[in-house]
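TL;DR need structure tokens for one chain.
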Amino acid sequence: MKKFLPAALILAFILAGTTLFAQSAPTGLWQNIDDKTGKPKAHIEIYEQGGVLYGKIVKLLLKPQDTLCDKCKGNLKDKPVVGMVFLKNMKYDSGSGEYSGGQILDPDNGKWYKCNLKVESSDKLTVRGFIGFSLIGRNQTWVKVK
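>> reply
TL;DR here they are.
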């Protein structure tokens, strides 16, 4: 029995760590807040695909649902904002405890920015978009839609 106790403890720690990681993954439906007005702007679905996070806009709250991304470039030019994947390639970094390495699109200006995501709590997410390095950028707080 004493031989199995260390193995059982190790397994318990592994399972606890996996559960904590799963609880901190920011998948689900989020609402971002407009920086200028302080009003809810859109609903965003964050989902995992192949160990990487993506986000798409599922509902606009301040603009018509048929709004097009007229300032976007390339294959997103004049495409509907609703349904658009505008957050991509976010990977978990265990060193920082954040998701990073991906990009986020600002449909209002059509520009892509580097991005970090930090889970603050089960219903609060800090999203940082930046150019170059993280010091030059801005944060948005997203709240979980219930």
